[in-house]
């Protein structure tokens, strides 16, 4: 009976050592897997941050371009408006001069007609 108990103790001790060894190997494998996942996630995060940083820079540059275009367009529109205003003013003055000349001509005609009566 004692020999049998010693054999079972030895077998149990062997199984416990095997179990402890397997648990240790599993813990090492899990630690390596965690480290691999950490490195992978870190690399992906760096790539995403770089890409988003590039996109952000592109958006900021495009915003500056649009701001310049709007400012240029505003300046261009202002200059066109000034040009059109000057042209319109000149046309109005020309029409006023023609109206004055026609009015003067009509006045002379009416006066000459009245003078003949």
Give structural notes.
There is one protein chain. It contains one helix and no strands. It is mostly helical and 117 residues long. It has one helix at 2-116.
Q: Summary?
A:
The chain is an all-alpha fold. It is 98% helix and 0% strand. The chain is built from one helix and no strands.
Characteristics:
single chain; 117 residues; mainly alpha; 1 helix; rod-shaped
Number of helices: 1
Total DSSP E strands? 0
Helix/strand structural class: mainly alpha
Helical coverage, percent range:
over 70%
Q: Roughly what is the average pLDDT, rounded to an integer?
A: 91
Query: What is the strand content?
Result: under 5%
Which segments are poorly predicted (pLDDT under 50) over 5 or more consecutive residues?
none
Give me the Rg, rounded: 49 Å
Assign an overall shape: rod-shaped
Distance between the termini: 166 Å
What's the order of the H and E elements? H
Largest sheet: none
């Amino acid at each position: 009976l004692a020999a049998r108990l010693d054999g079972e103790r030895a077998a149990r001790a062997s199984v416990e050592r095997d179990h402890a060894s397997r648990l240790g190997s599993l813990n090492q494998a899990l630690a390596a897997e965690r480290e691999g996942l950490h490195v992978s996630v870190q690399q992906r995060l760096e790539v995403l941050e770089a890409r988003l940083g590039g996109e952000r820079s592109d958006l900021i540059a495009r915003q500056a371009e649009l701001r310049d275009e709007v400012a240029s367009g505003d300046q261009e529109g202002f200059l066109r408006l000034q040009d059109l205003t000057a042209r319109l003013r000149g046309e109005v003055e020309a029409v006023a001069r023609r109206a004055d000349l026609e009015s003067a001509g009509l006045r002379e005609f009416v006066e000459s007609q009245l003078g003949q009566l």
